[in-house]
Amino acid sequence: MVSTIAVEDLCVGMFVQLEGGWLSHPFPLSSFRIVTVEQIATIRGLGLKHQKWVPEKSALQGDTAALQPPAPGASASVTDCTADPALQQHREALLAQRAAVQRCERQHAEAAKAWRDASDSVGARPQAAGRSTEQLTRAILDKMLGADDIGIRLVGGGGDRAATHALNVAVISMLIGRTLGMAEADMLDMGSGALMHDIGKLEVADRFRHADEGLNASELKAYRDHVDKGLLLGQKMALSPGALQVLLQHHEQADGSGFPHQLRSERTTTAARVVALVNRYDNLCNPQAQVPALTPHEAVSMLFSQGPQRFDAAVLNAFIRMMGVYPAGSLVQLTDDRFAMVIGVNSSRPLKPRVLVHDARVQRNDALVLDLETAPDLGIRRSLPAAKVPHAALDYLGPRPRVNYYFEPLQHAAAEEARDTVAAG
User: Are 369 and 311 in contact (CB under 8 A)?
Assistant: First the structure.
């Protein structure tokens, strides 16, 4: 049962449930047990007068033992003793899985709305838009730095291509920065620049907002002008110098063949080199022009083959280590010949992703995601384009036309929060 307490009365051991949206607090999860006085100080700093907590899941000083969440198959009031334990376990895992997906997609939608609000206010209130961009970056980065393991999850992104592209580039770029051990201030600059790297397209005609192979010289110049226009808007937004460098350099290439200034790798910032690579990856998977999209695996392969000429080697290696050879969204065949779709990757152990497996005996909505990390005898044999996957398996796996990513903390507390979401209905 959820109770309410004055924030002044919070103490270590209480299991709290924060409200107000995922971006409104710095914790990686919204439900957790307080373990330090610093966490209490942070909650009090949110400006709340009261806080929800769950006595049954708390472990206050003097308790004989930390009370555990309900066991699989149990509810707060009734336990079905006649149910098949294996079936009950499957149902509990399935509900927790759905709750985790819903939670991640809700967080992605919240971040996309914050980006859209900032983007829409650039023209009339540029400095307010700049502050909103930096606040969104700060909120995302706090979640990343507050978790030990980070998972990259495939999510639905709605119809707002600009918002999902900005989030794809920003989230993956900041995760690469985390992998590279970049300073927090540099990651903030990179994240803000990544979120607004295409802001100059607001002042470019629709037909010039993507690089179509059929553009003539004057049309190509009109497209490339979005970089300089973006820099001017970024200055009006009062973005940091590091973020402005990302806006200016995100189309430069390691060999000096990029634009607008043909800068070689050593003359660009690390943040700009990261964003340039991730921007290219997302445009290969989710092209704006009328060209076929590559699968995430095909996009990684192309980036790897072009790497020595176009991308910084350290950045490319960090990208592949983090995303894996089979990034989320890849269609694959497992070593037992079943077809599957990668739906999540642990950024610290990317060779063993989570996959949705085609199984004609199980309804698609009842299919469990298989974590290959827990299946040592099973792996991925090869990646496949959609045209090479049997129709029945393709319909079952249901790949989306766009590949959209978000991140989630992979901790015991994440499973605990998923159960709370299920219990809340």
Answer: no
Kind plus residue range of the DSSP H or E element containing 15 = strand 15-17
Write down the architecture of domain 103-323 according to CATH.
Answer: Orthogonal Bundle (1.10)
- Domain regions of the chain by residue span: 1-61, 103-323, 331-398
Q: Which residue has the higher pLDDT, 235 or 149?
A: 235
Q: Is the Cβ–Cβ distance between 324 and 350 less than 8 Å?
A: yes
Residue 122 burial by Cβ neighbours in a 10 Å radius (0-12, 13-18, 19+): buried
Q: How far is it, in rounded angstroms, from Cα 143 to Cα 24? A: 11
CA dist., res. 361 & res. 249, Å (int): 51
Residues in the chain: 425
Pairwise CA distance, residues 272 & 238, whole Å: 18
pTM beyond cutoff 0.90: no
Determine if the peptide bond prior to 308 is cis (ω within 30°): no
Residue 343 and residue 95: Cα distance in Å, rounded? 17
Q: How confident is the model at residue 289 (pLDDT cuts 50, 70, 90)?
A: low
pLDDT above 60 for 306? yes
* Residue in 241, 237, 239, 211 with CA at minimum distance from that of residue 225: 211
- Which is higher by pLDDT, 289 or 272? 272
Average pLDDT over residues 240-258: 96
Q: How confident is the model at residue 415 (pLDDT cuts 50, 70, 90)?
A: very low
pLDDT at residue 29, as a whole number: 79
The angle subtended at Cα 389 by Cα 333 and Cα 102, nearest 5°, is 75
Q: What's the CA gap between 10 and 34, in Å, rounded?
A: 9
Contact 341, 333 (CB under 8 A): no
DSSP state of 255: B
**Helix 412-424 with 85-120: angle, nearest 10 deg:** 90
